[in-house]
Amino acid sequence: xPCYSIEGVIPVIDPSAYVHPTAVLIGDVIVGPDCxxxxxxxxxxDFGRIVLHRGANVQDTCVVHGFPSADTVIExxxxxxxxxxxxxxxxxxxxxxxxxAVVMDEAEIGQQSIVAASAFIRAGMKIxxxxxxxxxxxxxxxxxxxxxxxxxxxxxxxxxxLTQRCLAGMQEVVPLTAIEQDRPRVQAPAFxxxxxxxxx
Length: 200
Description:
Protein name: Phenylacetic acid degradation protein PaaY
CATH class: Mainly Beta
CATH architecture: 3 Solenoid
Order of helices and strands: EEEEEEEEEEEEEEEEEEEEHH
Organism: Noviherbaspirillum saxi
InterPro entries: Hexapep, Transf_Hexapept/Carb_Anhydrase, Trimer_LpxA-like_sf
Number of helices: 2
Distance between the termini: 42 Å
């Protein structure tokens, strides 16, 4: 994977973490145990430190960066969806930042909170625990239900599983030129989008 030191500061990746070969890590980046870093993610620790605690995931095309002397932290089981941008902020334990959301400087996403897709979290905003946040600029919409919090946890657990699957079996290959007979499916654990669970 593209991994670069700057001024002698080298990224740290726990051996139990999975970092996709197309992700880029620069400088003061610390990836903890059981973390997942997706394709084309950019974690630039060339100004401030970036820290991922156990079981956090940063999905494809996310950008994580920060100001000098400011840490950007994703706590245990923090879940950062496709294309999100984090800058000098803190994502507390078991919180989710939705796809294409932006979390600005000195903002804090409270424990077990969910930031909706494409939300804009302004600089300095403090999100209370167990809250649903949405909008541009983002506002706290309501408290989360126990079912929604459980759904988020199960989603993060699918990324824990993906970390193990990638470490065990992902490899670069030459694509096939035709669909084979009885084509298999990947063996991902069962998990549905939140909208599907509400129909049940």
